[in-house]
């Protein structure tokens, strides 16, 4: 069965990466919850998509330049008073559920890896006994390669951007995955078709999809038999999967 991951907590159904969105997702029959992590200036890890605050909060500037207390003072856009969550809080929210964490390790404002971010996140997961229920993803292949070296994770996925696909081609994507010992890829839904899926599978790679945010895209990735896909419309995606499976 193709697995469904609620992207940023289902950002077309509730404000992204917010307590509201994650509580919503926790009540759904999805297999995974997707979220993004950045470090703070005082050594904490928070859950927010962008490297800067401007789009998704009433704050400005780089996330990593703020302390946790400064970030807590901000309000998440589209909410009355939702505050930025820590990784630890998201872990604790989903630990009693059967939902797997799908943790995207983000890059900084210069699109460079944050030193030590993955290792720090793994320590928090281990403290909660959640490493085995966590899939690590990133658009940066070296970060995924670092995750490959970390035993006990539920999975590691390299998210391949359209730019990388255009610059490298499918053969280049396969070669990069092989060079970093990466076994699973996530491809943007609008760049996926039967030919692409077959090419990657023939190379021994697992294939999933991201940005699956309308009914036609959901139906397509289900028909292609993707391993997993992220979606901002998890409630509708669940209904479409059930319909396809005759449930």
Structure description:
There is one protein chain. This protein has helices at residues 19-26, 68-72, 87-94, 117-127, 141-148, 162-179, 194-202, 215-223, 234-244; strands at residues 3-7, 32-39, 45-47, 85-86, 100-105, 134-138, 155-160, 184-188, 206-210, 228-231. With 247 residues, it is an alpha/beta fold. It has a single domain (3-52, 85-244), classed as TIM Barrel (Alpha-Beta Barrel), CATH 3.20.20. Helix 8 packs across helix 9 (234-244). The protein starts with a strand and ends with a helix.
Q: Descriptors for this entry?
A:
247 residues, ten-stranded mixed sheet, alpha/beta, 10 strands, 9 helices, TIM Barrel
CATH homologous superfamily name? Phosphatidylinositol (PI) phosphodiesterase
Label the structural class.
alpha/beta
Tell me the radius of gyration: 17 Å
Query: How confident overall, as mean pLDDT?
Result: 98
Tally of helical segments:
9
Kindly estimate the percentage of residues that lie in beta strands according to DSSP: 15-25%
Uncertain segments are none
- Identify the CATH architecture: Alpha-Beta Barrel
- Residues in helix, %: 25-40%
Summarize the structure.
By secondary structure, the protein is an alpha/beta fold. The protein is 35% helix and 20% strand.
How are the secondary structure elements laid out?
Layout: E1 3-7, H1 19-26, E2 32-39, E3 45-47, H2 68-72, E4 85-86, H3 87-94, E5 100-105, H4 117-127, E6 134-138, H5 141-148, E7 155-160, H6 162-179, E8 184-188, H7 194-202, E9 206-210, H8 215-223, E10 228-231, H9 234-244
Parallel strand pairs: 1-2, 1-10, 2-5, 5-6, 6-7, 7-8, 8-9
Antiparallel strand pairs: 2-3, 3-4
Helix pairs in contact: 8-9
């Amino acid at each position: 069965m193709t697995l469904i991951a609620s992207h940023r907590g289902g950002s077309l159904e509730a404000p992204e990466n917010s307590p509201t969105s994650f509580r919503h997702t926790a009540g759904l029959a999805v297999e995974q919850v997707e979220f993004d992590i950045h470090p703070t200036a005082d050594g904490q890890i928070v859950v927010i998509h962008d490297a800067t605050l401007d789009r998704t909060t009433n704050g400005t500037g780089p996330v990593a330049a703020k302390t946790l207390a400064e970030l807590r003072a901000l309000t998440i856009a589209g909410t009355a008073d939702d505050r930025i969550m820590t990784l630890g809080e998201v872990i604790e929210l989903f630990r009693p559920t059967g939902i797997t964490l799908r943790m995207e390790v983000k890059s900084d404002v210069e699109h460079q890896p944050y030193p030590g971010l993955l290792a720090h996140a793994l320590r928090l997961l281990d403290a909660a006994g959640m490493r085995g229920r966590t899939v690590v993803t990133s658009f940066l292949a070296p970060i995924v390669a670092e995750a490959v070296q970390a035993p006990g994770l539920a999975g590691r996925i390299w998210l391949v951007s359209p730019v990388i696909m255009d610059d490298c081609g499918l053969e280049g994507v396969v070669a990069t995955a092989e060079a970093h010992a990466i076994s699973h890829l996530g491809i943007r839904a609008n760049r996926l078709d039967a030919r692409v899926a077959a090419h990657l599978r023939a190379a021994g790679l697992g294939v999933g999809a991201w940005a699956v945010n309308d009914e036609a895209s959901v139906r397509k990735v289900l028909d292609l038999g993707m391993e997993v896909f992220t979606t901002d419309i998890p409630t509708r995606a669940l209904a479409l999967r059930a319909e396809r499976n005759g449930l």
